[in-house]
């Protein structure tokens, strides 16, 4: 009630100040220039109008300060008209109030994830482990235990957080994370070394194509498991593309190699090249349900948003991964 009385008082004072400002233009000239007196009254009118506008805005409205300066400028440089504009807007809101149903809605704070409550969650063991690892406020023993347990999860799901843990303030966690990453990398690199040896010893085109196919898949495994970053990431992608193209030079019908080339092109933000490679993979009988999400991404990068929903609509809920299902609901609703 007090707020309403204050707003009404400010509105009346703004009207009186505006009337006095206009009145000074018709009074006899004094020793002070009438325009200077008018500008002083107009400035007071603008301040009162801006304060009036700010007072009637809801408390949770984030643009109250901006509205104050906006209405101040309009009232100052549009004498009479600026004040009437804002008073008219307020009068309309009083004469034509919003439906009562809308009054039930309210603003809520943005939800935040609280890591110390993660132990109460009874599902999603992988998410709980990752949250325990990221919780730098937790005990070192709990985080080390989580790091040991996380080895049971696929490297694809833990590669990124393992890289982040290399900069952890706890030395024991840094060493464990380095050991886990190093062990996975060594396994893949040993298989790459064996595949290179097989490639060097190949006696015919078929054996060489098999070796190149294997090398492309192994280098792709480094990317897929989030084991490489920066320049090493770009170098690894170049290796994937090189061996995939060499495999296709001997066996053009290798759908998996066309698929890997399409994925690499998407990572380089080249939708045209990606679409060509993915279509070739589809032509050579690569599973369509695995291609559709990437073809939809190609359409998105080419700003063909209408095709995205059409493509994803063809996927059944049973074939979509849990990560893809929210995307499908968004584009097909």
UniProtKB/TrEMBL annotation:
**Protein name, please?**
Membrane protein
User: Which domain of life does the protein's organism represent?
Assistant: Bacteria
Which InterPro entries does UniProt cross-reference here?
A: TPR-like_helical_dom_sf
In which organism is this protein found? Pandoraea cepalis
Where does the signal peptide begin and end? 1-19
Q: Does the keyword Magnesium belong to this entry?
A: no
Is the keyword Transmembrane helix assigned to this protein? yes
- Segments spanning the bilayer are 37-57, 69-96
Q: Which Gene3D superfamilies match?
A: Tetratricopeptide repeat domain (1.25.40.10)
Report keywords, A-Z.
Membrane, Signal, Transmembrane, Transmembrane helix
